[in-house]
Structures are given as structure tokens and as C-alpha cells.
Amino acid sequence: MTLHTARRSHAPNAAPSPTEIHQKGPRLTDSRTFADLPAAERRALPLSMRLLLRAMAVLRRRDLESYRLNLFRFGESGTA
Questions:
Q1: Which of 11, 19, 33, 66 is most enclosed, with most CB atoms within 10 A?
Q2: Diameter of the chain by CA atoms?
Q3: Residues spanned by the domain of 60
Q4: Is 30 inside a domain boundary?
Q5: C-alpha torsion angle, residues 73, 77, 78, 80 (rounded to 10)
Q6: How far is C-alpha 24 from the chain's CA centre?
Q7: Residue 50: inside a domain, yes or no?
């Protein structure tokens, strides 16, 4: 009986799960710290900022990693 109930819950007309409902709103697609910026973004910064980030990564890594840069996308999955 339990197996039959589990199969029925995956039917095409079953109610969407809570995670499926939230996919239409904002979703986190990337999260970085200042210490692990991609090379392209790092090169776009002025030299003084690049040097500061490098020094901070060595001296105060914990503080630098406490700030995150998050990229959220809005809309359904697969849309930009």
C-alpha cells in the first residue's frame, strides 16, 4: 500500500512540490566573496583595489569572506 501511494504522488497531475513553486521567483545562481572573484571581474577593478583585495585575502581572510556578492535571476528556470 505504501509503494502504491508513493507512485501516485509522482503522477503528472500531482500538486507541485514547495521547491517547484519557488522556482518561478528569484533564485540564487551564483555567490562569491571578494576573495574569490572571477579573473575577468578582478581585472576590471582599478589596480589599487586589486592590491587591497590581495592584501586583505592574506591578512584578514575571515573578514573578507564574510561579505558575499550574490547573483539572483528572476523568472522561470532557464530564462535570464
A1: 33
A2: 67
A3: 25-74
A4: yes
A5: -20
A6: 15
A7: yes
- How far, in Å, CA of 40 to CA of 59, rounded? 23
Count of structural domains, the chain: 1
Confidence (pTM):
0.47
CB 73 within 8 A of CB 26: yes
Q: Dihedral sign for Cα 44, 67, 31, 17, please.
A: negative
Tell me the one-letter amino acid at 28.
L
Q: Return the pLDDT at 77.
A: 56
pLDDT tens digit string along 29-57? 989 887 888 889 889 999 999 999 889 88
Does some domain include residue 42?
Answer: yes
- Secondary structure string (H, E, C) spanning 18-52: HHHHHCCCCEEEEEEEHHHCCHHHHHHCCHHHHHH
57, amino acid identity: A
